[in-house]
């Protein structure tokens, strides 16, 4: 029989941290005499009570979680935390049902960025800050999970990074706690730098802090209905592009930069592929847009560079709310970019660049083997041979990702959504991007009009995408629960 005490102990710690975080928006609302501070205070108290109760009731001698416990703990945390994070949203004066509140909280913590809220310009500051905090906490949680949990669980080829980073990182920082501490420091430093730059170009302090948290986390929540398009400032867009890209790079490589060693950041093939892919997508889109709309290339480049970067990194900000006007190429291109994502070990979502690299190398070796059946060919990643287990894991991930997307799209279609809305909503959920396509869930709309069952389906899709599919699906297999 499984011992769930260590799992509930960890959940208790996480809930206690979430409760403390609720005090920040409570203080902000209290400072502006908004009554919602009481909602945050009561939600914090209840969440802290549950968290501390879990800690006290399940304290055991320090022990490492086994593989099964790690799977349950990871999925349990990402299901439970939104349930409590939704409480202030549900009980504040927003007219949100608990379904809407859970959807918003799951979208926040998974850094998806889809929203059911309208009239953000008039929403109390505490709620706006809480949404940004959720994405910021989700962003650092994703980085820690990608570095410490998924490689151990060997999910979707992530075991590749135990080999990739173990030598050079552990020699510099031999203790896992040190690595986690430095990652948190880097994440905080990037956020503060981004906020300072936003403030220097004219944002209010409140807007700068909120947008910095959601930019570095590549989440995309904004304090305005028009997102960053509300500011109509090229400088704001440029800052956002830089920090969306920085949030999309492997945070472990930043450890080398701190030690005055910039070479790994530029030599890493995953980083090169990401920058190259993004550059080709931006320039190609700008060229096609300039031809279709008969506008200057530089004007087209401004529009596409921001919006394409936002979509590919899964941030979901927008400044141009009509992709249709870009040309016939726009919708299929945007749809495809939703799935790409950034680098492993970053705050981004999607399939991740390294999996495309592994798949490409595997296909290249297969093609060579067809031409020279007796030859010996080896697939490489970052100048190292790719273990067969990694190739198998990556191919299995692609298969399960496609199946999960198809099931989500079919479920949303069965709930009454049209083809474009259902497929793009499924894509934006499982790839944790934010906006979909079409007038209802596109950048100019939101997800408020979806039925409650559709919102729960999308919440499940966000969870699947954020936890790399297998971490969730394995819990529904009979084999997992057998001793």
TrEMBL record:
Secretion signal, residue range per the UniProt entry: 1-30
Compartment(s) of residence: Cell inner membrane; Cell membrane
Keywords (A to Z) from UniProt: Cell inner membrane, Cell membrane, Ion transport, Membrane, Metal-binding, Potassium, Potassium transport, Signal, Transmembrane, Transmembrane helix, Transport
Ranges that cross the membrane: 40-58, 70-91, 133-158, 179-201, 238-258, 270-291, 333-354, 393-415, 456-481
GO function term, MF aspect, one: potassium:chloride symporter activity
Residues binding K(+), per UniProt: 111-112, 219, 315, 432-433
Principal subcellular localization: membrane
Pfam families from the UniProt entry: TrkH
Recorded GO CC terms: plasma membrane
Membrane topology: Multi-pass membrane protein
Task performed by this protein: Low-affinity potassium transport system. Interacts with Trk system potassium uptake protein TrkA.
PANTHER family reported for this sequence: TRK SYSTEM POTASSIUM UPTAKE PROTEIN, TRK SYSTEM POTASSIUM UPTAKE PROTEIN TRKG-RELATED
Family that this chain belongs to: Belongs to the TrkH potassium transport family.
This protein's name: Trk system potassium uptake protein
Species the sequence originates in: Aestuariispira insulae
